[in-house]
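Fold this complex.
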Amino acid sequence: MENALRLLEAGEMERLISSYDWSSTALGKICDWPLELRTVVKLMLAMPTPVNIYCGPELTLLYNDAARNALGEKHPEALGNHGREVFGEIWEEVGPLIEGVYRDGMSCSVMNRKLPLERGPERVDNFFSFSLTPIRNEGSGGVIAVFNPFEETTAAHSAKRALRTSEQRFRTLIESLPQLVWRATQSGKWTWASSQWMELTDQQDDQWQGWGWLDAVHPEDRAKALAAWQNAIPHGVLDEEWRIRDARSGRYHWFKSRATPLCNHGKFVEWVGTSTDVQDHAEVQRRQTMLLAELQHRVRNLLSMIRSIIRQSADKYVDLDDYVAHLAGRIDAIARTQILLTRAGAEGVDFENLIHDELAAMAGEKRFTASGPAVKISAKAAEVMTMVVHELATNSVKYGALGDAKPISTRWSAPTFNGEHWFNFEWWENFDVPIAQPLRRGFGTELIEDRVAYELNGTGSIAMTATGIHAQVRFPLKPGTSILGPWPDKEDEL
Amino acid sequence: MSADADEIQSLKDCKILLAEDEWFQARQVSVVLQTAGAKIVGPAGSVEDILKLMNEAAFDLAVVDINLGDGASFEIARNLRAKSIPFVFVTGYDESIIPQELSDAPRLEKPVDETQLIERLTSLAGFRCSVVPSSEQA
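Structure:
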């Protein structure tokens, strides 16, 4: 606003120069100035563009209206003052030039020089282009003044710099993207690729150009990539996945390539596209699908097993309440196994946890002893063993030690037979009062003798005497397969 | 009574290989098939044991669980196909997991409807067991 107002007072400098008391300066009264100087001052005052004149050996400053605006708060004190004093902050930069022209009479010009001029409360970097021309006295030939038209180029310079910064920022952005960025002609020939492309594929500029980028695409996917480009032209968008070779590992990764046309005034300029590594995403998705299938299998299998147990339990019982109680107990045991399996994850189930969970539910902590090394058993083995311990405990509550408030003892070990790791579990209970006759072969016995052999390739036995029960289960330890564990490649498996 | 017994015995003397890794279910299916007159080959619960059985024993049909403890596997099914022995898939998996070349095999979802299982096997047996000479029963 201030500048705009000042512009309206055209002719101010002419008035100020005329009324200035030049007699107190080295230049003396205007009427005594050399003709050349007066002519140049008049020319300056008539010029619409900014001009300074440095007069005499002290380089006393005169300037026109256009230059006054560039001086800011230096005006009006700057008029008639020595150049060195007016431009103290930049004299180191410009002083030698002006002094040189005054001394040697050789003109010079400077483009876009950064001059941190103090002309307001804030000191900002300003840019100027200017020329310095000596004014000579016709008679003596000596330099009497330096004529200095100038132009402030700060705005133009900032714009150029902003553009450069913006370009740098854009490049930094492109290079920091996890995607590969590229540009292509209408038909899909590449004209530019970001540095990530070179890093990934090890292709040099002359290798990826045109259709060269196809060399880095998996041979099986090249036809697909070409077809995608053919489709992209009518549809105005490219969106397809193909594999690109990572030169560092030698492995192909799935990439999703997308491009949209860049248009200027409705006219096609080029395709701008990105390729994003979707390998991890694809793997997560595949694993999720497998997990879901596995979970579905597991749930249906459990239901199927429970249905079988319901059927197979039925023929052993006469009393309905008894049947229901046993069935509920077995289903609870299956549920506890599921909790253990979920908690255990891939590495297997800790047997001590299993036996404590199972016996605490049936006997209470104080009425059993459990001793053995830390052993992890597979999910399958955990399912079988939970049921085995459950059936032994149920039987004991009904007919044996637990029903008679006597303790039971369990022990397990992990022996090695013929270089194979086995699991060995034993159960003891003793009765004070002898049981009249050994129990008939029931659900629990079948489970121990047959299921252990069928599902775990082991052996199970239960010996009932008049004074006690001894049960033993042995099976080879196998690394467990868990739905939560690492999933083998489907290809390997099929 | 005798009419009922005839109906139940729709798989009479049909030899059926049973591939099921879970003991309770293997027992249950065995009982159901035996009630329908079938003779069970197996059951067995591992790919290895079943392949061994396939080499050693003769049978007309098979009931195959897709997961025999180590994830989905189609080795048994492919072997049966190679020997032109009809079979029924019994599985907790979705249809989508079955490879293209085996997708025409009948598939029953767990828990298996036992009536349906007998029906499927009987219709497969129609092509097989009916040609078994009745003299074998004697």
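Residues 114-128 of chain B form the longest helix (15 residues).
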